[in-house]
Amino acid sequence: MKKLWGGRFTGENKDWIDAFGASISFDYLMAKQDILGSLAHVKMLGACGIITEDEMQQIQNGLNSLQEKLANNEITFTIQNEDIHLNIESLLYEEIGSVAGKLHTARSRNDQVATDMHLYLKETVEIIIEKTHHLRSVLVDKAAENVETIMPGYTHLQHAQPISFGHHLLAYYQMITRDQKRMQENLQRIDISPLGAAALAGTTFPIDRKMAAEELGFSSIYDNSLDAVSDRDFLVEYLSNASILMMHLSRFCGELILWCSYEFQFVELSDTFSTGSSIMPQKKNPDMAELIRGKTGRVYGNLFQLLTVIKGLPLAYNKDLQEDKEGMFDTSETIIHSLEIMAGMIETMEINKSNMQQATEKDFSNATELADYLANKGIPFRQAHEIVGKLVLECIQQGTYLQDIPLEKYQQVSPAIKADIYEKLRSVTAVKNRHSSGGTGFDQVKEQIEKAKTELQIE
Ligand code: ARG
Predict the structure, then answer these.
(1) What whole-number distance in Å separates Cα of residue 233 and Cα of residue 239?
(2) Start-end ranges of CATH 1.10.40.30 in the chain?
(3) Ligand 1 center to residue 85 CA distance, Å?
(4) Which residues form the Fumarate lyase N-terminal domain (predicted)?
(5) Averaged over 69-98, what is the pLDDT?
């Protein structure tokens, strides 16, 4: 088959070589963007008098008809046409004949592919921003229902101090908020038009790059044509933001998986987000959470793949860059689905409040309370720490807890200890009293929720 670029070639093409060089099997996902880019380009060519009004009209009609056929699933792409750009161009010939050949004036596939990617990512990142916003609101709603739900707070996965479950959820709210902001900042680098950079050096045709950019809804144009066609920073940044986002989802999923276990039983995921076992009838597995955790691997992989592809590339375009797209599509699909599943999973999970609280009642997570109590009575904190450490050791040896120690015994340790210690040792009191700003005290958690609600509404 004759290639659209075949003028200087005499040798034969081999199907298996064509297949190796082709990108249509994945870049067809940018078909809509490719046609939009061409529509803007041709309108600009017409407006600048580079093609006639009539030619412009014919090409526009052809492209519009292709856009419609695409929406109706009536288009077939071929490997012989290599990529989405050449496929669309050759389909345009079928629509309108040889005038189609004027479309590629003052343009190259190099600025074309970059334009498609900027358009694709702009749309995708806007969807991701919506999804992160939704997940944040789900987290805040769940937190609001659980301000006074007491759970063990962990360090080293050992009971540390009791906390509010709402507070725990709001920590994830903060992470996802930063993820959303990173995506918003990323948009500034995505929202730039490379169109008109042509192959690498610009063009002698009197084009109007700003007009084409405005037509496509871009806020600005690249200042340097070499940079325009070879820059993939906006994509590296996106893949890196996506990796951080997945890292957060993965951490949360890891906790959910643990909390669903028989040993914890802190939460129960709804049936929709769980699966059974083909052999063990009793099983209810947190597959969706495990998959989000697992899919984090491919998102990290996509980032490292692209960084590695670009690291040795001379300016400007190199075919290596064709390897930039599969990771972009894969990451986009993965994070959009993960965000949706995460939100659904949190929204519908049952919280076993009594199990959570009970886990803070037969443990030593109130040891800091006792040390703080002594420090409040004027005993230096280090000394208080030592005293409580010894009491904990004794309790462990006797199989009791700090709240079981009789007052007489406490007063032997320090006469400063009064009967009010027992109230202080309750986990709910320990949580309630942490009024320091950003702490887990109920008042602090409520404040965080109010702030989050304002943030969510003003975006
Ligand atoms: N399919 C190519 C890619 O994805 C489009 C650009 C091709 N440009 C070229 N000079 N061969 O990178």
Answers:
(1) 10
(2) 367-453
(3) 9
(4) 7-301
(5) 97
- Tokens representing residue 176 in the block: 């996802």
Query: Each residue of 178-218: pLDDT tens digit?
Result: 999 999 999 999 999 999 999 999 999 999 999 999 999 99
Task: Compute the distance from residue 318 Cα to the ligand 1 centre, in Å.
Answer: 8
- List residues with catalytic annotation: 156, 277
Nearest CA to ligand 1 atom 2: 322
The CATH superfamily holding the domain 367-453 is Fumarase/aspartase (C-terminal domain) (1.10.40.30)
The 3-state DSSP class for residue 319 equals helix
- Residue carrying the six token digits 């669309």: 88
Q: Report the pLDDT value the prediction gives residue 90, as an integer from 0 to 100.
A: 97
- Pick left, alpha or beta for residue 16 (phi over 0 → left; psi -120 to 50 → alpha; otherwise beta): alpha
For residue 170, the CA-to-ligand 1 centroid distance in Å is 45
Residues of the chain with CATH 1.10.275.10: 15-105
At 95 the pLDDT is 98
Q: Residue 152: beta bridge partners?
A: 162
* Closest C-alpha to ligand 1, atom 4: 322
Residue 80 has pLDDT above 80, yes or no: yes
Q: Which ipTM value was assigned to this complex?
A: 0.98
Atom of ligand 1 nearest to the CA of 27: 4
> Which of these, 304, 308, 330, 333, lies nearest to 321 by C-alpha position?
308
> Which regions of the chain carry the CATH code 1.20.200.10?
110-354
User: Ligand 1 mean position to 368 CA, how many Å?
Assistant: 63
Strands (E), 165-260: 192-193, 220-221
CB 307 within 8 A of CB 383: no
111 lines ligand 1 (CB under 6 A): no
In CATH, the number for domain 15-105 is 1.10.275.10
Q: Given ligand 1 and candidates 5, 310, 322, 326, which is best to mutate, with the most ligand atoms within 8 Å of its CB?
A: 322
pTM for the structure as a whole: 0.96
- Residue 141 has a pLDDT of 98
In this predicted structure, what is the pLDDT of residue 231? 98
